[in-house]
Amino acid sequence: MPPRRSHKKSRAGCRRCKIRKIKCDEIHPRCGNCLKHGVVCDFESPEVADDLATVSTPAAPSPISTPASLHPPNPARRRRSSSAIPPATPRVVRQPSPIDVSRAGGQVGRLMELRLMHQYTNVTSKTLLTDSPVAEDVWQRAVPEMAFAGRTYLADAILSVAALHLRSQSPEDRALVRASHAYTASTLAEYCASLEKGITSENAEALFLTASLIAFQSVASRIFAKDDIEPESDDPSARYALPLPWFHAFQGVKTVVATSWQWIRNSNIVKNVIDSQPSLQLDLNPLGPNSFFGHLLEGLDEELAHENPANVQATTQCYSHAVCVLNWAHKSVYPAAALAFPATVARRFIELVELKRPRALAIIACFFALLKRLDNVWWLHDVAKREVMGLVGLFESGSEWWRHLEWPVRIALWDGTTIPPEVWGADWNQTGHKTDGHGFVNHIELVAELMGQSSQDLLHVATPFTGEPPLTAESPD
Asked: What domains can be seen in the chain, in order of their start residue?
């Protein structure tokens, strides 16, 4: 038997590698493991050793979890050599601390976190399209307070949205790019872990608010996506990615609300947020005389003739419901009413979008055109033009669907701050939405009754980055 190969143990590795109990290559100023994971190495920044020691040291049980970046540095520790072997290493929490990435690039994590929280409470919280001063106060004051009470996934969601907001103003700031990616990943990891453990009366409010912020984050992220992924490709689908994050994210909010309604229905925080949206009062006749988008259902019988018989009813209902929501939002004086569309469409409709059915793509093109009135909102800026023209590019030249796309294209390319009623197709001053005193709560009550309570179904829909395997795509005619 050949002699065993000797193993040289790393004794001067960085503190992060020691905590993770992995071999450090001891390369200065940044070891290979830290470089691979995009985090700061204490070889290049001695202050990181203080933070790692703070994160890895177990604290006495407390209802409030204090971020590592808020602990003051210990001058005595900074004078120690960064290669000193630490004392016995305690068990480390699985989720990374926000400090790990917000310090990237030599930035001081504490200052980054303070910058993001200041941005959120003073600016970003006022851009979440609430139609109520009470709801605005919830996002600005009550939500951070709940996050500080130990809901780290909610705190990370707040910082993630704030980072994206700042990125929209300074897209070249690499520290903000890293921070937004880090907080987004941390939010999703802890959020999904909490869902796996189950929604309870104690975490229902925080999970609902986190799901809502994830939806904002998911939508806002598309403003940084490149439409021309492969500019030289002749395949339109290679130049435009379907806006599925929109639907998965908002459907996730709906699922969390419906599943936890027994606990949050009496929450003033949740009810104020939900009731800040206009009452969903639909005319359930999608082909009535006042139906502006009824033309999108033309030829449906011919399409259903080739449909799997098991899906005919679901397909019919989801198309009809989607058109009804478009008709309602189109006439609403409240521009953000259109955001009810991705949250209320049926799961079957989303499947049809994934399959690139021409009718489904034409319908969502009209939805994105409705968002033209929200061009001044940072996370919806230029979304109408970007998404409508991307969807139109999926249709073949001379397609019979071109006539159904004329209105969304005209609206998406409209140059001006005001769209005349004759161009829009409705006068908001005469057809503004009216509430029945119950806001959106009645709709939530109905959804809660209809939806199943399966935790697997919840996990399947509740995050924007989970779902069924991609369906086989069909090319729009």
From this structure: 9-56 (4.10.240.10), 99-257 (no CATH), 280-434 (no CATH)
